[in-house]
Amino acid sequence: MEIKKTCVLGAGTMGSGIAQLIASHGFTVHLVDLNMEILNRAKEKIKRDIENFLVKKDKISREQAGDILNRILLFENRDEAIKGVDMVIEAIFEDMELKKGMFRDLDQKCDKKVILASNTSSLSITEIASEATHPERIIGLHFFNPAPIMKLIELIKGMNTSEETLNTTKNFAEQLNKVVVIVNDSPGFVTTRLIYVLCNEAINILREGVASVEEIDTACKLAFNFPMGPLELSDLVSNEIYLHIGEYLTKELGSKYLPSPLLKQMVNAGLLGRKTKKGFYKY
Ligand SMILES: NC(=O)c1ccc[n+]([C@@H]2O[C@H](COP(=O)([O-])OP(=O)(O)OC[C@H]3O[C@@H](n4cnc5c(N)ncnc54)[C@H](O)[C@@H]3O)[C@@H](O)[C@H]2O)c1
Fold first, then answer.
1. pTM for the complete prediction?
2. In the chain, domain spans
3. Cα of 203 to ligand 1 centre, how many Å?
4. CATH superfamily of 6-184
5. What CATH number belongs to 191-276?
């Protein structure tokens, strides 16, 4: 099976980037969110990014930019948006109950040939699919931020995901010019589990007074050739998201993933990072 038309649920940071990426590769994409205000804001951001990073840098013409934007259609009504698509990519809030309910509903409404993918960065695909009648067409399709630029896609195979779903999704990801790694379902998969441990440990090192914020980040950047230090990254992703990931990994995998007490304090104090203009750094 070949994927031609897709629907992206959620027009936030990830959903809007994924829609831009898909439309840039010549596919029509239906972008869904709760209201037109969010959708229009998302499309304006996509337009600005295409203008600043592609048109102004002579990577594409203004006409091509217009064609990309025309391929992104906005929908408040999910039932309308899923009509006639080959794949639905979910990028709504990172909440198990919300995602489970969403996949139960999509499973009831979409033809059983339609692939249902989740962009979750940590939650179990098997559990997300647990209330669906056709869990074989449910898969994890984990993009990275910013989706149009980052090269990797982590494909997560749930316990019931079929080989056909895996192969079709892999082909689609490769058509988007991404490199795919295939992993079995496990909390945090490969990438989120590893990056959480690094960032959480950096926060513990800070808490113990071993080194300052700048020293920790500079050490990681220059010693390991990382483009960004772990505290800078935690601020970028949001300290709140790392706290949720840590709590989820602790619940599922054990106490070695316990979030640093300093991470909890930062979140309680509203120091979420770039989002609140204050985290480990000031913005
Ligand atoms: N931000 C990242 O760096 C990143 C990276 C990889 C994966 N993810 C994952 O992607 C998903 C989305 O993350 P995000 O950072 O884009 O979140 P976000 O908060 O920026 O966007 C989520 C969007 O979903 C919308 N939404 C919520 N419920 C909805 C519903 N029922 N129907 C339609 N739209 C709905 C919200 O209005 C919001 O616009 C999460 O599962 C997250 O773990 C995030």
1. 0.95
2. 6-184, 191-276
3. 25
4. NAD(P)-binding Rossmann-like Domain (3.40.50.720)
5. 1.10.1040.50
